[in-house]
Amino acid sequence: MPDASPTKWHLAHTAWFFEAVVLSSHDPGYEPFDQRFFHLFNSYYESLGPRHPRPHRGLLTRPSHDEVMAYRGHVDRAMLRFMETADDETWAHSCTLVELGLNHEEQHQELILTDILHAFSCNPLLPAYSTAYLAADSPASTLAHAAPDAPSLRLVHGKPGIDWVSHPGGIVNVGHAGEGFAFDNETPRHKALLAPYLIADRLVNCGEYAAFIADGGYERASLWLSDGWAAVQAGGWKAPIYWIAPGDPRAPSDEWQVFGLAGVRPLDHASPVTQLSFYEACAYALWAGARLPTEFEWEAALSAPEHGRVTQMTGHAWQWTRSSYDPYPGFKPNPGAVAEYNGKFMVSQLVLRGGSSATPHGHTRATYRNFFPPATRWQFSGVRLAKDAAC
Question: Which CATH fold topology does 142-388 show?
């Protein structure tokens, strides 16, 4: 898939970031491991030179895994020396880049899992990545901590029985407050005006999404945005990307199966549904008589627990919002090459909030803004419903 990268590339690219952004600019004594790697493992930084085309990364049979690990070791040792010997002025200019590089590597730890899952899904054998990702209490959970507090399935007249948490709206503060690390796209902190709204106290689960499918959700154009319906027709979408229908020869059974990092397992109706595109999330919300929250409604709900308990906000699924990925008022990208990290992608993408079961612990926060194009399905992305308070 053009959007996915091999594990080996992720391992090399995260080392490349420290080499290209920190060592090459701030350590005059640094000797590159292999000058060709500057080109090979550049992701999208135009200011740092040409790069290997993203759709062709999977064709890189060389360098070998051993060479990539040697490259990582070379960069790690150089970074340790640099951090031990840099003078105060040099460190003052580079410490924020080091912190950015650490958070960048955490992002790629998640991408390694999402990308290898997609690669394995293309194998007719549907191999398991590791049974370590199988939860003892949830046979369809992709990761061991995927759904520790998932409620039991509850449908009312075929539709989800949601408990709603009320928020009064008003003027709220959103964005990063300046304490601790944040990406530049989370800034500056500013005020937003919200109308009163209701937000679901939990994520939509697999059983509820199965009811949507059974009710002809993928067959009714009236539920879909125009681009979404075109994607359904062009891609032959019938269910989430890794769901296997009853009777499918890949996993013959009378029940739905789900392919995850632990292999093919029976659908767990209580687990949050994941691997949904924005289009699927919107169609489901309309079917359920609701909508998706805006990113500011999501952040306000998490930041104001006095208005009610909202669960599964992080650690389960990235949650699509109805917000375009745009700059905040007064946004300024970080200086230097890392100005290309977030700002130049602020078009034709939607914001996701929260954090998934594949996200490293401690990586997310209330103001974190993930973003993907609306047709993206291979991420651990799911649905939280919202609606206007008057509805």
Answer: paralog of FGE (formylglycine-generating enzyme) (3.90.1580)
